[in-house]
Specification:
With 89 residues, the protein is an all-alpha fold. The chain has one domain. 73% of the residues lie in helices and 0% in strands. It is globular.
């Protein structure tokens, strides 16, 4: 039987990126995988995922949650390294 780990492994996103989408969109991980995979196959979809992570970094900073902001910043750096088309032009 296929499970969430198998589906996440098939995605072009990492588990941390999926978790960031889930956080931003208030979704469960399965729905976040599906949304992320869908977005990554759209024109400018990678840029949208980038914006989601940036929004969450700003929100963490406004809540004075520096460790969470740092964690998300590391996720953003890895995402842009793997998907350079996501970088803001």
């Amino acid at each position: 039987m296929i499970n969430l780990d198998d589906i996440e492994d098939l995605s072009c996103l990492t588990r941390a990126e999926i978790a960031a989408i889930a956080l931003h969109e208030h979704l469960g991980e399965m729905d976040a995988v599906l949304l992320g995979e869908y977005l990554m196959h759209l024109p400018h979809g990678a840029h949208r995922v980038n914006e989601m992570i940036c929004d969450d970094i700003r929100a963490a900073l406004h809540r004075d949650e520096l460790p969470e902001a740092r964690r998300l910043f590391a996720v953003l750096n890895a995402f842009v390294a793997d998907h350079p088309e996501a970088a803001r032009g």
